[in-house]
Amino acid sequence: MKGQLFRISWNSIRLKLVLSVLLITIPMIAFLIYNNLYAITVVRHQVAESNRNLISLYMDQIDDNLNDLDAYMTNLIVNDKDLQMMSYMNRDQRVLAKVRLDAKMTADIGTLKTVDSIFVYSIADQDYFDVFRGFGNNTQERNNVRSYIRSLIRELEDTKEFDKRSWYVKRIGETYYFFRILQTSDAYVGAWVNIERLSVPLNLLELGERGLSLFATENGVPMTHEETVADFGIDLNRDLSSYYLSGTQVKHLVVGERSSKGEFSLIALIPDDQILGNLPYLRRIVAIISIGAVILVPLCLLLLRNMVLRPLNRIMAAMRRIGDGNLNARIEPFPTSDEFRMVNHTFNGMMEQIQELRIHVYEEQLNKQKAELQHLQLQINPHFFMNSLNIVYNLALVKNYALIQEMAISLVQYFRYMFSSNLTFLPLKDELQHIRNYIRIQELRFPDQLTFEISAPEFLLSARIPPLVIQTFVENSIKHAVSSEGPVAIVVRVDLDDNREAPMIEIVVRDWGSGFTEEVLREIRTGNRIVDAQGAEHIGIWNVKRRLGLLYGDRAHIQFSNAPEGGAEIRMRLPLHLGT
């Protein structure tokens, strides 16, 4: 019962009221949230596009400067005679050529933007010389870079593998550098740029108070502001073709551009809360409305529950108890609105009238069923009565007084049982004794044509069954199976069927005659009365089925069929009722 009370039907007024409230409030809240999210998306997009343009502009400038450096070094390799002929000169000539080349590079580096140093390495005499921009480089940094370049060139000479076709990133100590190296048959020409000095102009980008810009490798490793990126858990190793949010503590808008000249990217990081700083009022309004709706919806549902749903639940609970057969169920008085009080009072009054009416109808039905049952039990086959008298008459003609006495006693016992069987139930042993007596009468009528067998366990003989339910089918078997073609056997077997929830008595009546026709079986299974070819109505089977229905309802089962070996078979299962 408790589970049924909490089971809600899709057609329930409770569900409809709840859904009505939710269908009004949820779309409004969803629209506000969507509007807020849309505004946030638009602001982010505008900020991202604005900063992307700045990043792209600055990256284009860097790529142009690097492209100028590539053009300068290529021109130096192609057109400078001192560099080209250095390997063919003697020692004194190479010294003079290096002086002229150094002077040229020193003069030219001032016109080249971005670069920190240009260097040349002569393969012939393994001589390295470089020029620097006139600021920003210290001796330690220059020596560290020189050491790296010398070791790199030695490695290139040993492996004969040169794949430095573009600007690449190298970390030396705690500093990142961009390197570019070109190779000729006699020398190496290259340049390098300090990332930290290259990042100085990035501070001019308007990224807000807490926004920052940085260079990153192609694998997303930051070359500047490493601690900031690590502290906020920002992922830089993602596709930079579109902006995205990243960060574990504070979300940052990541906007970047990859270089077309080297293995690095320029990235801007802008805190998301800084971007949305212009939307505080809208966000507050949406938050207040959402919180208010979350609070008000349960309050509205609580009011609906107390004012409408609880009175309905009480009415439904009473109706369920009545549906389960408890006609004494009533709706207990409780504080509620006048409309529900009127419904409850009317419902209780109606149930009292129904209960009284039901008692009268039930008593009337009991009397009617009892009278019908007695009428069915007292129906006597007139042909049997006349045939029995005819047998007595024929025995009197031949003066067989012993059989006349036996026949008279059998008829007396037969009719005594018939007239006393207006009781509802009788012991099984009485029914079986009546069948033996009935078959004995038929044996006198059909000498040498009947054999029968009756079996029942001793413990079932006291079981109570309706009278004449077995005798009716034995009578039908004799009536339809006995003929001049030969003797007929009839078997009555009673046993206990305990394979069900409640134990049942199983009664089987079988003969070895011609069995049921398909038409008769169809009529029996549809519950119709059977009419033979002469138009005579046979009510025996219908009588038994009707009586069992009145006595047991749907607890009794009766099955009609033809046995595989031939003959009719009737199988009944009746609830076990042991008498004293």
Spatial ordering of strands, largest sheet: 2-1-5-4-3
Largest sheet: 5 strands, antiparallel
Helix content: 40-55%
Name the beta content range. 15-25%
What is the CATH topology classification name of one domain?
Answer: Heat Shock Protein 90
- The CATH architecture of one domain would be 2-Layer Sandwich
How would you describe the shape? Answer: elongated
What structural class do helix, strand and pairing data support?
Answer: alpha+beta
- How many β strands by DSSP? 18
CATH class of one domain: Alpha Beta
CATH fourth-tier homologous superfamily of one domain: Histidine kinase-like ATPase, C-terminal domain
Description:
With 580 residues, this protein is α+β, with helices and mostly antiparallel strands. Among the domains are: 80-198, Beta-Lactamase, CATH 3.30.450; 383-575, Heat Shock Protein 90 (2-Layer Sandwich). It has helices at residues 2-5, 13-79, 81-85, 91-109, 139-159, 195-198, 226-232, 272-275, 280-323, 338-377, 382-397, 401-420, 428-445, 469-481, 518-525, 540-552; strands at residues 117-122, 127-132, 168-172, 175-183, 187-194, 212-217, 244-246, 252-258, 264-271, 426-427, 450-455, 464-465, 488-497, 504-511, 530-531, 537-538, 557-562, 568-575. α2 (13-79) packs antiparallel against α9 (280-323) and α13 runs parallel beside α14 (469-481). The two termini are 38 Å apart.
Structure at a glance:
The protein is of the alpha+beta class. It is 52% helix and 18% strand. Among the domains are: 80-198, Beta-Lactamase (2-Layer Sandwich); 383-575, Heat Shock Protein 90.
